[in-house]
Amino acid sequence: MAKPTYEIYALKYAGPFIRPAPMMYWFHDMDKKIQINYYIFAICGEGETIIVDCGCAPELAKERDLTGYVNPGEVLKRIDIVAEEVKHLVVTHIHFDHISGVELFPKATIFVQEKEFNFWMHNPIAKRAPFLHVTDPVGNRYLAELEGSKRLQLVEGDQEIFPGIELLLCPGHTIGLQTVAVNTERGVAVIGSDAAHIFASYRTDIPSAIITDMVAWMSSYDKIREKASSIGQIFPGHDIALTDHYPKVADDVSRLA
Ligand SMILES: [Zn+2]
Prior knowledge:
With about 260 residues, this protein is of the alpha/beta class. Helices cover about 25% and strands about 30% of the residues.
């Protein structure tokens, strides 16, 4: 029987943002700027739709004054996906730009690494300034209230959630970040989320400046590169090329694989 294959879409919901380059590319290009976008991803095929990350809720987007913000639910509608009806949601990590919109998906079963969940929900260190800065207390509270319910699937390490779709524990940027390996027509692609913010990192090993564990991060690069069919099949979390260099299927939506 043929292996199940899926399509992958990148949906930009905010940006572009202009940032100092070393924020996205650690201790390099010190005097340069870089443009980034905020994204969620959709995996479609075999009769299933799996959304990767939630984006930012409208309230927090307003509070943080996000340039070019569109409610992620609105962007999903452009490819006929109704957020309220989504059944499967992968949360790669619990930073505000990836978790805040969790309430937009009220019916979804949420897959998150147990290590990631336990850190943000139960470790008092997560309340300290550097961590607090990148999180959303409202989204976190919503997630915390799901503990013990069927809607929350705490994943321990690598796990295949559908034939041809595997979650990979890839710590470094956060304690329990997970990426998603997806079988596509052109082999295995990896939705890397913030295991790298930009494409260049997968070639050079240079991460972003938001680091929890640098040693783990290097091992995660090895793991992702080994898993993907080619380096061109690894997709970072914030690179504007995700929008600009792939076939456009709707406004701010591109097909990656
Ligand atoms: Zn991010």
